[in-house]
Fold this sequence. Notes:
Helix content is 73%, strand content 0%. It is mainly alpha-helical. The longest helix has 34 residues, at 41-74. The chain starts with 17 loop residues before the first helix and ends in a 12-residue tail after the last helix.
Amino acid sequence: MAMVILGTPVMAQKGQPVGDQKARIFKRKLAFLKENLILNKTESQAFETAYKDYVKQKTSLRKQYREAVGRKLRTGQLSQLSEQEKKEIINQKLTLDKQRYELDRQFTLKLTKILPPGKVIRYFKLERDFNRKMMERLKERKRRRPGKRKPFIKKQ
Length: 156
């Protein structure tokens, strides 16, 4: 079976809002998954509903993580935080990690009710393949783009 990945840059292009770009990537990913899982009409509808709900919840958790943990760590002012604030950040991270794990677990259980086991396992592989291909395309775009690159890790 030939796997076809439609090229879509992850970063927004001039005149194109980032949200629109993310929506297009999501639509292509969903179409890719449905096509390569070879779903019948009933499976396709149930999968699409479950997957959209899963991605919405996952996005919400990612946003919570950014607000609770990521922004505080990115500011470079870690040394200015009190020990209590540092402990609070650690606890928030652990709580959000647990919620992400539980979300993934619940989605997997839901998939096992919608799809046969072989298709559930195939979903995991296809998800990984799509994400890997998107990362390769992003790296390739960065390589082709001239200009100064920001360092991966800033010294604090």
